[in-house]
Amino acid sequence: MDISSVSQLISGINNNQGNKDNQGNSPIPGMPPAATPPNVGEAAGTDFGAAGTYQAGQQAQEPETFTIDRERVSALWNQHQERVDSFRRMVETLLNQQAERQGLAQGWSLRDIEITDEMRAEAQEMLDEGGYFSVEETASRILDFAVALTGGDPGQIDVMRDAVQRAFNQAERMFGGELPEISHQTHQAVMNGFDEWAEAGSASAITLLNR
After folding, report:
1. Any idea where the domains of the chain sit in the sequence?
2. Is 68 helix (H, G, I), strand (E, B) or coil?
């Protein structure tokens, strides 16, 4: 081999080595270099954060929301008010009837009626101890109704107190501003029953309901 042929051979080897360097050390002349794998997190579009952890299928949970049913609340409130008003009217009726019997027993009435001895005797019997309009019987009916209406819930005692007081005030107005003594005694007996209920936290503590 002459010198010229040797020079061409060396030049070709050098050129081929240069191509390898320029093409990312590709093992095959003329082929593009192997691609560098991308960062896994970047390829997936996921930020793994400082901890670098990730659970497949994990999703952020939306906070649970609640909606007030205003129509239902209004209906329940109206129902509650109707029951309280019914209780108040019942108490007012009982006090009026009791006061009326007291007047009959004493020979007077707000109504324009003729009072006979028989009417007076019957009224007095209803007012005496154990009678339908006696202090104990009237107060126990009021308290019994209050317990039944509230299911014995001590949290409703103040509502019942207020209804009784309003009924008592209305009955007083109907009787010219003053009720007979028996009505005041009945009012006090009812309030005492509420006190017992509140102190014990249970309607079973009301003395008048345990006779």
Report:
1. 82-97+132-210
2. coil
